[in-house]
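Lab notebook, bench 4. We co-purified these components, and the gel suggests they stay together. Before we commit to crystallization screens, I want a quick structural picture of the whole thing.
Request: model the full complex, all chains together.
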Amino acid sequence: MSFHVVVVGGGATGLSTAWWLRRDGVAVTVVEKGIVGWEASGRNGGGATHPVSPLFAEEQRLWPMMDDLLGYPTEYQSRRLRIGLSRRQLDLILEGVAVARAQGFVAHELDNQALRELVPFVSEAAAGGVLLEYGGHANPQRTLQAYAWALQDLGGVIQQHSTVTGFDTVGGRVNGVRTDHQGVIGCDAVVLAAGPHTAQLAAMLGIRVPVAPARAEMIVTEPLPLISIGGADGNGVYGRQTLRGNLAYGGGPHEWIDLPDAQTPRAVNSPVMQSVAKRVFELFPKVAHARVIRSWAGVIENTPDGRPILERLANPSNLVVATMSSVGFGLSPASGRALAQLVTRGGCDFADLSQLRLSRFDALEADWKAELGWLPWSPHAA
Amino acid sequence: MPAARDPTSIAHKNFSISEHVPLVVVGAGAAGIAAAVMAARLGLRTMLVDEHPVAPGLLGIDVPWMFGDRMDAAARNPARMVERIVAARPGLQEAFDAGVDVRLGVSVWSAFADGPTSKALAAPMLGLADGEHAWFVGFDRLIVAAGARDLALAFPGWDRPGVMGALGFAAAVGDYNAFSGRRIVVLGAGALGEQTVRRAGAAAVEVAAVIDVAARSPRDFGVPVHSGFRVREVLGATEVEGVSIARPDGSARTQILCDTIVLAIDTVPNVELLDLLGCAMRFAPDAGGYVPVTDAQGRCSRVGIYAAGDCAVVSDEGHGDPRWAAASGRSAAGAAARDAGLAAPVEPTPPEPAAIDRDAWRREWLQAHAGDDATTLPICLCEEVPLGDLLGVRPPRYLAYDAARFAQRDVRSLAADGPVNQDQIKRLTRAGMGLCQGRRCREQVQVLLAMQGNQTSGSVPMPSYRAPLRPLPLSVLAAFEESPEMQANWTAWFGIAAQWLPHWQEVPEGLRYEASWNLGRLE
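Here is the predicted assembly.
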């Protein structure tokens, strides 16, 4: 019988991992409690520009190829435009750009006039912008379905609407994944990539994966004429203009929440969406008439330092734990490839993942969420 | 030890509420007016909100009803429209007299309340907006009497200006008195079609014919009725100039000249606000679609939320008789008053409407017009999604894609991986993602998906409703006072400083949060 990997979680990280494994001929089954890409992976801003990550170079190398590699459109668009309304915002942007420049990537500073040539509806008072000759953005929902379909086209299996209820271990290895509807799925290796639910799943194996779930939200406007660099944002909001022309932006206060069971409750919006609209309005005052037509929220997880955990553990030795700490979609082409290598080779040959080990949290206090203020808060609980 | 705070989280943020009222009634139709008047007389301070007259910009995009480009210029003068609406709804004067705080031209764009992912609000908030500002009111109780909206069902040419809904038509010839057509054809020979013919007669609008796909014995409309006919095409190059109909087998072709076609097959309960609030829903084929789960007095699953009138159940009785809706409104008002501790008699609940499978009408219509060969039939007008692209789960036209790959992908292949979900289809095809917020395709997409999978319509989960419930300009949403603590602690994405340090830098001890970290960092 061939080597069989069970990936728990049909989000960006899990599906990409499964797809990369399957490209290497590995038998793979993705177990997803709902629908692929349904949660945060399909609800984010679509950004693909993460210079602080050890996976950045690979993210940049892979995205331009993803439509061809997957065989389905992702709506990937290259380059980004960061807009500073004030000098202070611009300085902060430049600090971030320095991180990419240090890795050999190119960015051009733009004055207000040059900025407005690229984005006619940007504020005339904007201090300036930076055009990144790297990075980009894609449509999360379309990309997630592309991963799923590409995986199926290669013979990978996706079990939707299946919740993992436990694991069978023998001799320091996981050899079965128990599910509510598919029984026990035998396996030679397991990847836990279940977003905020990764903590509960790892706990079933006696492993503490410290992540805290939170809700965040976005808004979207009616379609507008296309600007030349769709990935234009700033003023405290992140997002993009979609290829259809809609402005999709998010930002602002998140809400730490509880996830008491294996399901993810419907993530609702809050009055924060009005503050998001305010910042988009300040950024693009010339499209003040653009109507907001929809909003949404999603649930993401963060580790205590906000950095991913990507590690194949020593015990169980065939278990890989993966959380991207709330920044997973854009990096998913690269994270999936790295995780596939962790499964098949035990290490990653294109990125230094040494800082992303779970063991960095071994000494973490039990009440770390309270220490950070990352527990749900209600004015009525006090 | 005081609990640590994450200053970038929603905790301890204040959201400004302009006023707090014990009861808000949403919708000043027969149900809402009756509810507000009764609640006020029982001693509840009551605000009654109605979106009409709607902003002129909404008329052109069929929000909230299908106006079909058949409103004349007068409808674009809100002040004049307010006068007309007050004149057309005598109950509004009664509400003024009863001390109800009546707000016309004010729409509800959102409601935010406690839920599994929302614990940080001090109290439930109802988001209101007019043409210039958006604000919040707090409430103890909320009666939703939001009425119904038009049921849109596709036929060849239905995307042409001049195709409107029965409710859009009723508003045009009624409240707004701004109908620009002269001669209409009515689609649907049921109670709603009959009511539409009656309304046309009262407004001296000529009815050329009534058409129904069902071969049921027609009621006596006093106008020609073509039962057992389907729409072949809409005549007219740019606007409706007539309609060509035929038997399902193509025989008996007939052309009828008209300037307006009124879709009057059924209406759909307006449950969007109730869904936003997390009220439990059920699919009821005899109530017009997804409706809130309520008790006999209209209490929803969420304490303090009530549903009255057409938004709770659409029926032939309701289409025919506003007294039915008013009784439902009084019943909910009595329940709200009693729940608030006031003495109020238990109002007689309106009689149960006749159990008719209204879902069957939708299937009948779509079977006649959206068969396998109708691949180019427009389904989602905003996003220009034809039937073939919907059922084939094709990407939108502006994206290049590998047709060979998609040849093996469609709604049925997706269904093999699990029950079909309309929100998933929406994300892939964009059907329902447009400016009209899905009002013109939500129901038909549901039924079309169900028909593909040989499922009941109710087995397709209701797509979620989201704020803003009406398209709302950025400038309006942005017109509010933001709290200083929101401004001071705003970050694009959490405030975890180490998340934005280059990976080659170790996480410094004690580095927790810095407001500036994220403002410009998220790329």
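Chain B touches chain A through 89 residues (CB under 8 Å). Worth comparing against the SEC data before the next meeting. Residues 515-523 of chain B have pLDDT under 50 and may be disordered.
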